[in-house]
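Researcher: Following up on the earlier apo prediction. This time include the ligand. It's flavin-adenine dinucleotide, with the SMILES given after the sequence.
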Amino acid sequence: MAERIVVIGGGYAGLAFIGEARHIPDSQIVLIDPGDGHELIPELPEALRMHDPIEEHVVQFHDVLEGTGVEHCKERVVDIRMDAREVRLSSGEARSFDWLLVSPGSVSAYPPIPGLQERSLPLRNAHDAFKIKERLRENPHQRVVVVGGGLTGVEVAGILAPDHDVWLIEGAPRLLPALGIGLAHYARSRLQVAGVKVIMGQKLERVEENTLKLQRDEIHYDVLIWAGGIQAPRWLRDTDLPLDDRGYPVVDSTGRIGERVFAAGDVWRVWVGHQEVPQTAQLASMAGDYVAESMTRAIRGEPLPAPFQPRLRGMLISLDPGIGVGWVIRGGIPVRGSSARTLKNLSFQQYRLKLSRAFGRGWPF
Ligand SMILES: Cc1cc2nc3c(=O)[nH]c(=O)nc-3n(C[C@H](O)[C@H](O)[C@H](O)COP(=O)(O)OP(=O)(O)OC[C@H]3O[C@@H](n4cnc5c(N)ncnc54)[C@H](O)[C@@H]3O)c2cc1C
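Model: Understood. Below is the ligand-bound prediction.
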């Protein structure tokens, strides 16, 4: 009997995994994902620009999986029963598995700030990007306030700056904690040159209709974008997966949650020494490749590979117009300006190439 491998989520981790695991002999892979395609999420901030269609940043599952024998089940998983070896779907149906990959990504985290969740727009997927773009299209002169000065918030503020009145709010006294202080200063000064009003060191206390109340100031907004952090999907709490104090699955260093259940992507909190590795598409894709190897060995009854030790190639963000900031190569060589932007665009192309190779396509998606 063929081994039935179920994959929850066709994002960066899920597709990297399937690209490798599809070569396991006598296996049948089912991808469960409620969407039509693989969303190239790191490209979405750029897709917020007026003339950049969001559809161009989604690769249809049909185009990736056609001819591979992998089934796409267009459903949402709502529960996992490790003991019964089945996942339950929002339709009420259950799917059984011999082996399971849990890779549903993450969702926006909302601190208990009155009015925040109801009045702000997140940017986590293509649907969110559509909604933001629709709101921006209503009137280009609206004031857009982005809350959260991390990688996503800075990138969104920079990209919207040429076309809108943009404000960026960060509670900490600096932007971009994931980058060095010099790069963060550079990003801030470029944002300011592009016209973004940056407010740092004031926590958001309350969101009212069209008004943000900070610790000391009040700011008018028309469109509010929340880029304040991520958390594990809430539905994982209803499953029988072991979870940590933040609601993430407890995963060992080989990607395993249980004997036949593995995780990859944003839901796997990866540590190198005492340092948690930031959740990125790059990490998710590497974890997907790695876990395919782990699961293959487990299926064959072989010892699992050495613990996952991701070696990130860099971290780059766009800051319009035509510039970027970040670091490349292990050890972290800082890059800024147009070279950073070129490298970032190159990384998008490299990813598309990786995907097309993994699925035996002759052209980059
Ligand atoms: C705006 C933004 C910009 C970013 N920029 C960068 C960047 O420049 N570089 C970088 O490396 N990282 C970036 N990231 C982070 C990166 O996008 C994520 O770390 C990465 O997508 C995680 O991959 P994943 O496979 O875990 O989840 P995802 O890629 O999010 O995929 C999850 C998949 O699971 C599916 N799914 C969700 N719930 C269910 C369910 N219940 N049942 C079935 N399927 C489900 C979803 O439909 C989706 O297809 C950015 C993130 C955001 C939001």
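Model: The pocket of flavin-adenine dinucleotide is lined by residues 8-14, 32-35, 41-42, 44-45, 76-77, 103-105, 123-124, 152, 233, 265-266, 279-282, 284 (CB under 6 Å).
Researcher: Noted. I'll compare it with the apo version next.
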